[in-house]
């Protein structure tokens, strides 16, 4: 028991919220691998509350003193934490046949500890600097909810990175849905704090928002994330700006906002937020950078028609497997190869919800194929030796049709080819018009294929 409460008192005397939150961690620290077991065995159900009251309120061995109301609030928190630790130890030792029941008890007990913390902030005057305790409570409530719903028996070790928690196959997430409601309560008590900013719980907002985003993404309730963004916008003048929060909070927030815009097909806004997340991300956070690039690469493909380079993808073997085959086919104008690469990565593309966006890359591949036809057409015969050469701008539809049939390995009639060409012109991937009666495409002399230098 002593290490927990010694840490509590030391953190309280120093006003260190992060050290205080570590005394509520459900994971043994590396330097004390049996801390949870010793803490739980240090008392029993009959004596726990009295023992904790003595440690927090009446221990005369230290000069540390708390107001009675605030101290009793912490007694309730640590009593609930002690019970949760007991359930965690039981779950770790439970047989696989009872895994679901064990982790359900863990979740319920951890939820009670979280509720004790919430009551502390609403009724007992817990100070704003202690808000990191809510980070720990919210983080592990989400983890334990997932364990209770899936009963995977996976490790409950610390998860410091943000994760892209799409789970399209999830059908039953009772505990995770409940966890989302509890996280919303935490979000509300932070957002509605009226204290001056230097001592406000609003400094905990973005950590909780990021937990909500992760939870909503896993529940496939991404539309609920927009409610959070609307709430932030409504309180914008009464809260600190994002750039004064820790960079880890900024990166995670910008990443999820970027993905939300991506799923709404607002690729320019998505690119903006994802680029900011990429620039702020720590150079050694390879996994996080990989997740950002998963959406930033398709954004760039549609907004600027640029492809990822091998140098960019070299630290990310998984992204090389996903994007390099597509990139090579787009660059060459290989329509059949593009289709094959899209099918090969379909499962992962669908899981990440980038399939439909990447599918639009076929238009860029087609543009590059048509551009090759245009370049192969050569130059018009110069009327004057001093006149600079001008490329042939009147291309028979049949020439484009032959190239498309070869590139896609499918025979296409002239109407289908004209439809594809009209679509290219409409999307501003090609500048010109189709003269149907003459069976030719008349291309612009001033940039027939915008953005390509031709």
Can you offer a commentary on this structure?
By secondary structure, this protein is mainly α. Helices cover 62% and strands 2% of the residues. A three-stranded antiparallel sheet has the order 1-3-2. The longest helix is centred in the first third of the chain and has 26 residues, at 68-93. The chain is elongated.
Helix content: 55-70%
The shape, in one word, is: elongated
Largest sheet, spatial ordering of strands:
1-3-2
Roughly what fraction of the amino acids lie in strands? under 5%
Task: Offer a quick outline of the entry.
The protein has 454 residues and is mostly helical. The protein has helices at residues 2-14, 17-22, 35-41, 48-58, 68-93, 99-123, 132-150, 174-191, 205-218, 223-234, 247-263, 267-280, 286-303, 310-313, 317-332, 335-344, 346-351, 355-359, 361-376, 397-408, 414-426; strands at 394-396, 432-435, 440-443. This is Protein CSN12 homolog.
Write the layout of secondary structure elements.
Blueprint: H1 2-14, H2 17-22, H3 35-41, H4 48-58, H5 68-93, H6 99-123, H7 132-150, H8 174-191, H9 205-218, H10 223-234, H11 247-263, H12 267-280, H13 286-303, H14 310-313, H15 317-332, H16 335-344, H17 346-351, H18 355-359, H19 361-376, E1 394-396, H20 397-408, H21 414-426, E2 432-435, E3 440-443
Antiparallel strand pairs: 1-3, 2-3
Helix pairs in contact: 3-5, 4-5, 5-6, 6-7, 6-8, 7-8, 7-9, 8-9, 9-10, 9-11, 11-12, 12-13, 15-16, 15-19, 19-20
